[in-house]
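REQUEST FORM: STRUCTURE PREDICTION
Request ID: SP-0412
Submitted by: Lab K.M.
Chain count: 1
Length (residues): 356
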Amino acid sequence: MKKLIVFLLSILLLTSCGTETPDEETSMRYIKEPFSETEEKHESSTEKRQESEDEKDLGVWITYWDLDTAYEELDMCREDLDTLCLFAAYFDKDNRPFIPEGTLGTVEKLKQEGRFNDTENYLTFVNDKLLPQGSSLKDTDLLYDLLEGEKKARSHAKTIVDMTVSAGFDGIEIDYEAIKKDYELWEHFNGFIDILVPMATEKGLKVRVLFEPSSPFEQYEWPSDVEYVMMCYNLYGYGTGPGPKADRQFLNEMVDKMEKLPGKVNFALATGGFDFSSNGDIAQISTKEAKDILSAYEIEEKTDEGSLDHVFSYTDQEGIDHEVWYADRDTIEAWVKIIRERGHERFTIWRLGGNI
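STATUS: Completed
RESULT:
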């Protein structure tokens, strides 16, 4: 774990977190034929991972639209990295999943450079629809169409299993968000995961499932052969007043929730934060952007003792007051320590492609 901390200290500025969808690059390419050498890759990489599995405990997400420093950051954390999640597979206007050209290009580059050989590589599926004009993010109507009833759930599971195998990944990551307190949809989602896991296992794939902090997953039974990931961020943000991305109480609550699950658990952390304006506007902000504001307005920040988030205020050129809360590498290190004190060692960082 010491290497993990070194990595976190090395990445000076990661971009702000949350499920994002690129503004551009919405072209589609459906996977019909397997990539070459997929079977050989599975055999060799699995053997290598088993030899050092106990020493590795770090996962990262990588997005195709923000690769400025991603490959450099991969080199930094390579000794600790056991999980690489390619973000993401989306859905088209007809609710069919697809992998954007940019993601496929990233995969091919990673394979050519041998970066797929010593990690477990997941394709992340999100319930976002990329449309000819605009997009529908965290679309729960889409989830009803895909998961309502065993027949639909089984068909969807088969579709994404086949796509993941064809694209040469080791596993499937499910990031279906905004279900909130829709218990009917939770029933469908729970049933879908029960169908997906054995189907994926039969094809040699692993499964990761992401949960939002408010997810009532403890009310359902879940398969044990899964890695469950809790999004430990955005305690404050859209729809709230100013506050930190996470704090000690929040992190301990997330650990309490995750310990009720039967499978392997993982905790997702992220830097960046939110800029809360007095006019009601709220904007995500990266660590770099926060530092730029501090420099431009020549102001000082404080560190909140309860969260170790950084906070500062300023008035912009239009006379609007702002309160900014954000996390940096020191904050992440402190959050890792809090979770480690509870006996957990697996973490995933949102996301590579920051500003070093």
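NOTES: The radius of gyration is 20 Å.
Reviewed by: T.R.
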